Amino acid sequence: MAMMPKRVPQRQCAGCGERKDKKELIRVVRTPEGEICLDDTGRKNGRGAYLCRNVECLKKAQKKHSLERSLQVSIPAEVYEQLEGAYEGIGESAG
Q1: Which residues have CB under 8 Å from 32's CB, separation 6+?
Q2: What residues form DSSP beta bridges with 12?
Q3: Domains of the chain with CATH codes
Q4: How far is residue 20's CA from residue 38's CA, in Å, rounded to a whole number?
């Protein structure tokens, strides 16, 4: 009996709309307390949305308000700045 290949979970980037493997994307999470942060483990509690590992997709998501729709909350500009700062640390080095 042949073994089935393991399914790789796919997610859609909130910025560019491309579907990619979940491991290739960064999760942005709205915690139950209402805080918005990057989830490098992918296991934090809360509502999540996914972005590619480049800052351009974060900027596209900000412009289209797609991240706000996905997380069901309005996001102030300061939070986008904090996310962009956090991106510098993990973003393009891993992708």
Answers
A1: 45, 46
A2: 19
A3: 10-94 (3.30.1230.10)
A4: 18
